[in-house]
Amino acid sequence: MLLYIRLLKESFAFAINALRNNKLRTVLSLLGVTVGIFSIIAVLAAVDSLKRNIVDSLDGMDKNTIYLFKYSFGPTEVEQWKRDQFPHVKYDEFQYLKKNMDNVGKISFNFFTRNQSIKYDDNTVNSIRVKPSTEEFFEIEPFKVEKGRLFNEVESYSGTPVIVLGYDVAEGLFKGNEPLGKQIRLYGQRYTVIGVLKKMGQNTFGDSNDVAVFLPVNNIRKLYGDNSAIFTPAILVKPEEGTDIEEFKAELTNKLRTYRGLKPDEINNFFVNILSGFTDFIDDIMGQLNIVGWLISGFSLLVGGFGIANIMFVSVKERTNLIGIQKALGAKNKFILFQFLFEAVILAMIGGLIGILLVWIIAQILSSSLDFKFVLSLNNIILGSSLSIVIGLLSGILPAISASKLDPVEAIRTGM
């Protein structure tokens, strides 16, 4: 055991000596490993960070929440021209499903629409996300009220002109003054402020309830009807806890097909989107990004491996005389083999650690300058180090074998 510790120590000394005596050659040779490890770990860290931020954004939402409307969250086999002809979901379909579906925890009718400007006296806040919905929406997504209240079932059904403001909207309109009971203007109408939400921050998708307002969907239906091009209706369904989601999805599909009078040979003219399926879609994208990262980085690693092999062959040639003396004094082939193999591994690890260090530095810079948490995980650090070791072993094995097989007499004579 002591012999191998001494061998490792000597190999480390030879590796450092190679760096010291042949700086340019060694740096250029290690550059491939550094760039390769940097590329792989940077891609993996970026993908992991993005995935973690997406998961954190969805943590507050039930992954079994269903979005029922004419669009699909992910890829679909339905042709574009057919999807363009799909009808929007209707309020009466929402009421039908609400009354006739089993195992429904909560169900709401929502409009997705473009951003608007909102005014109070001389104050205007632009690019506000308007989210018309029924009152059940507040039980599907998590909401915390800073002051006031959310609109109730009566206000929702009658379309009362009341509104709930996101935290930043309230701050922008009222500048710290009391907003409750005040009237703001939106869509050319007056709405009474009944509540303000707590500050929540922005999620990975760029959405934030801090810059959103919530009002009864039936109020918008009174103003614009059900066929306005600026509003996209959707039905959100949250099954009861413990419900088999696939059975529930099948029942929901059959109910809506029956209500719409679709024949057995006709395709669904709507999409049943599940958040858990959306996260699976995200996982697939992340996996493809990882593969692309590995392919791109593989070329750099290949160049780096050849670079280290070149250093080791040169090192064998320069130390031929020393190898002959070691063998003449009784050093076994295995000792010489491990000596050069360790040296190759150490050189590769130096390149790999530099690559990992660069990723960490860039991660710190990005995390501090952007509203995005860039994380370099321990698993990726271990992966990068392990890859460096493997590259060192693969690129150093042939030079090490050639060194171990040298004849001691010929080696000493060649060195002289």
UniProtKB/TrEMBL annotation:
Bilayer topology term: Multi-pass membrane protein
Boundaries of every ABC3 transporter permease C-terminal domain copy: 295-408
InterPro entries the record matches: ABC3_permease_C (IPR003838), MacB_PCD (IPR025857), Macrolide_Exporter_MacB (IPR050250)
Location(s), subcellular: Cell membrane
GO cellular component terms, A-Z: plasma membrane
GO molecular function, one term: transmembrane transporter activity
Pfam families listed in its UniProt record: FtsX (PF02687), MacB_PCD (PF12704)
Keywords from the UniProt entry: Cell membrane, Membrane, Transmembrane, Transmembrane helix
MacB-like periplasmic core domain ranges (all copies): 26-254
Keyword Membrane in annotation: yes
Record field: transmembrane: 27-47, 291-314, 335-361, 381-403
The UniProt record lists the keyword Acetylation: no
Family: Belongs to the ABC-4 integral membrane protein family.
Name the UniProt record assigns to this protein: Putative ABC transport system permease protein
Source organism of the structure: Flavobacterium urocaniciphilum
Organism placement in taxonomy: Bacteria, Pseudomonadati, Bacteroidota, Flavobacteriia, Flavobacteriales
